[in-house]
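Structure ticket #2291
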Amino acid sequence: MPENTPVHAHARVRRCGGCDGFPVVAIDAGTLNPDGTRTTLTVTCPACRGTGAAPARPVVLAGR
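Resolution: structure written out below.
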């Protein structure tokens, strides 16, 4: 490998198990607005509150 080749190391992010990293979605409501566009509902993942990352686990200390 040449000396000046960049090495990419991605940060380790724990994805949310509820949304698998897609925290905000737009759902088609099935109706049209007066201007012809679709009516959509924006919904965020309740498990991660729209961050896409898994919530941090609480630290359990032994003996407490």
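Closing remark: The first strand starts at residue 24 and ends at 32.
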